[in-house]
Every structure is written in structure tokens, then in C-alpha cells.
Amino acid sequence: MIFVGISGCFSVLFGAWLAHGGQSLASNVQSSLSTALQYQLFHTITLLVCLVWAKIKPPSKPVIIACICFLLGILCFSCTIYIKLIFEVPLLGKLTPIGGMSFALAWLMLALEGKNNL
Fold it and tell me: Is the pLDDT of residue 83 over 90?
């Protein structure tokens, strides 16, 4: 839950900066940062829902794995894009696909949880 709070706060603050202070960045950089921000905010909210779900009902393995994968996805997808583009560290771009795969796996785990609860 701490991570969700920090990630949500960062999403709001970074979004405000990108909308106002980030206007001097190249348009392709702004676009990539905007995509990373959208993915971060969307998956932060989804992680919050999963954590609340895990508090209400005894958490199953798929829900726990989904939570971990959403967290890893945010770190490996969104955060690596931010660092790569703002601080010009291209090597971190190698982790971005791992973040995307983590997001995909998290969603599949939620689908499995749904199947298990039919």
C-alpha cells in the first residue's frame, strides 16, 4: 500500500511537471514519457484494487503474483522510461520490455483468478 501511495503521488506530480515544465522536451520524448505516465497511473490504480481485494478475501496465489507483477511492471516499464529519457541512460531501456511482460502476466493472473472463482 505504501508503494501505491508513492506511485500515485509521483504520477500526479510528474504529470503536472510534464504538462507544464516538460514542454521544452522534444515531442517524441514527451510522447514516450506520457505513455509511461499513463501506464504507471493505470497500473497503480489496478494494484490498489488488487491489494484491497486481497484484504477483503484471503489472497490466492494468482492475486499475490498479480500484485508483484504490477509492482515490477511499474518499476521496469515506467520508471526505466523516465530514467532513460530524462537522465539519458539508454542502457535502462533493456528493462522496459520486462516491465511490459510483467504487466501482461499480472493481467493473466487476474484472469486465472476469475476462472478459479467461477
Answer: yes
The per-residue pLDDT for range 35-67, each reduced to its tens digit, is: 999 999 999 999 999 999 999 999 899 999 999
- CA-closest candidate to residue 70, choices 28, 93, 39, 94: 39
| Exposed e or buried b per residue across 53-72, where buried means at least 16 C-beta atoms within 10 angstroms of its C-beta | beeeeebbebbebbbbbbbb
| Mean pLDDT of the region 9-37 | 95
Check residue 89 and give left, alpha or beta (phi > 0: left; psi -120 to 50: alpha): beta
Cβ neighbours for 76, distance < 8 A, ≥ 6 positions apart: 95, 96, 98, 99, 102
> Which residue type is seen at 24?
S
Residues 107/111/116/117 CA torsion (nearest 10 deg): 100
